[in-house]
Structure formats: structure tokens, C-alpha cells
Design brief:
It contains ten helices and nine strands. By secondary structure, the chain is an alpha+beta fold.
Length: about 260
């Protein structure tokens, strides 16, 4: 890394490395990766920690994204002045399908509803924007889990509380891992009454420049109106919407 780079730019590169990693990183590792003196990385990381942008693991040696950095990321994604295209794409999708559609992101041990367009049906399930829901029993949550590297996922699952929301909720880690392997192969997340008894949902990924799941586009409906098989007929529409979002968010095309 160039010696002329400012502390601000070096700090940005440290944050960038940490948020893109699937595990906590040490100052020693960061120094090697960024070709910077260990003392420099340690000093900058300590300053970032003091500002809440980084936080240390229990071992005191490795860093992850801090609460202020996570909050900044959420606020950026939710900023209405830069996400008009999301609502437009979801609105068109919801109108085509005739059911509620949403956009979610991964937020710690949960998914966060980032955008949502409600159906006009009198009977609908209300899950507001800005609320959090479990990973292990939602279509979007399981899609995020299936995209993680096995070691990172296992570590996360062991630290989570796999609450039984309904009789259909999978609470055994081994069974959930088997289920997630099928989702990874299919590229589609499905919830068949695992989060709410009377709800079915289907989710597809929005892929970023690192070929990872950045968002999910999902549709859900009361099970009295749609079956899981009936929702699958909308997969081409969901995938088209996901591709449009990938273009709008990351400039990614099919080429």
C-alpha cells in the first residue's frame, strides 16, 4: 500500500477487509494483507474501535464490524433518496404476482425487512419494513444461511437460539444443515409454515460483485390462498426482479 495514503484511506481499507471477511480478522493478518506496519494497523484499528466502527472478539485479538458501522450500513441501505428503484421493482413484481413482495438483508442473527410492497387482498400477513425475523425458519433467512461458508455457518448456528416458531420449524442443527444444502443447490429459499402456521414464502438471491447473496427478493402469501408449489410458478418473475436489482445496485449484468 502506498506510503502517501492518509490514515483515513488506510482506515477505510481496514474496514473494507473486515466487512468482506466471513470471520473476525487480527491486526497481524490485516497488516500482511494491506502491506502496512503492524503498529499502524493496530493504532488505526484501536481508533476505529473507540468510535464503535470495530469491535473486538472475546480473545481480544481479532476484530469484527462494530455497532456503529452496522448501523451506518443499515441506514445507508434504508435511505429513501437512493433506493427508489427498489420500491419500483418490487411494486411491479407484486402487481404481476398479486401477492406481497419484500426485499431483505442479513443483519446479525436475523433478517431485516428493507423494502416491502403489500398486496391488495383483504386477508394479508403484515410484516413491516424495518423489523427483524429469524434466519432458521424464514425463506430469506435460510437462503442467507445456505450462502455462508460451512465453518462460518456452523459457528453462527451454534450461537443462535433455534426457536420453534411452529410445529414445522427445524430446530436440529444437523437436519437444518441438510435442508440448507438443498436450498444451496436449488438457489431458492422456501418457508412452508415454519415461521407462521398460515404462511408460505419463496425467496431468491440478489447476487453482488463478490458472487454472494447481498439481498433476497421474496414473496409470501397465506397458505389458504397459495401452496408452496403454486408459489414456485413465480420463480421466473422473482429471478427477473432479482437480476434487475443486481443491475441497479451493483451494475451486474448477465454478460
Amino acid at each position: 500500500m502506498k506510503e502517501t495514503q492518509s490514515t483515513l484511506i488506510r482506515g477505510f481499507h481496514i474496514l473494507e477487509k473486515i466487512v468482506k471477511a466471513d470471520k473476525p480478522l487480527s491486526s497481524v493478518y490485516l497488516a500482511e494483507e494491506l502491506d502496512l506496519p503492524k503498529q499502524t494497523v493496530h493504532r488505526i484499528a484501536q481508533q476505529l474501535e473507540e468510535e464503535g466502527l470495530l469491535q473486538r472478539e472475546l480473545d481480544g485479538k481479532r476484530f469484527t464490524a462494530g455497532p456503529r458501522l452496522r448501523s451506518l450500513a443499515r441506514d445507508t441501505l434504508k435511505n429513501s433518496s437512493i433506493n427508489v428503484h427498489r420500491y419500483t421493482i418490487l411494486k411491479e413484481l407484486s402487481d404481476e404476482i398479486g401477492e406481497t413482495c419484500n426485499l431483505t438483508i442479513l443483519d446479525g442473527y436475523e433478517i431485516l425487512y428493507l423494502e416491502r410492497v403489500e398486496t391488495n387482498w383483504p386477508y394479508r400477513i403484515h410484516l413491516p419494513v424495518g423489523t427483524h425475523y429469524p434466519l432458521h425458519c424464514t425463506a430469506s433467512g435460510k437462503l442467507f444461511l445456505s450462502d455462508m461458508k460451512p465453518t462460518a455457518r456452523k459457528r453462527l448456528l451454534k450461537s443462535m437460539s433455534l426457536t420453534r416458531e411452529t410445529a414445522q420449524t427445524i430446530t436440529d442443527i444437523d437436519q437444518l444443515e441438510t435442508h440448507l444444502a438443498k436450498i444451496a443447490e436449488d438457489g431458492v429459499g422456501m418457508d412452508s409454515g415454519e415461521f407462521l402456521d398460515d404462511m408460505v414464502a419463496l425467496a431468491v438471491p440478489v447476487i453482488d460483485n463478490d458472487n454472494r447473496v447481498a439481498f433476497t427478493v421474496a414473496v409470501h402469501a397465506p397458505s389458504t390462498r397459495k401452496t408452496p408449489e403454486e408459489l414456485r410458478q413465480y420463480l421466473p418473475l422473482l429471478r427477473r426482479a432479482a437480476q434487475r436489482l443486481a443491475v441497479a445496485e451493483f451494475g451486474i449484468t448477465d454478460e
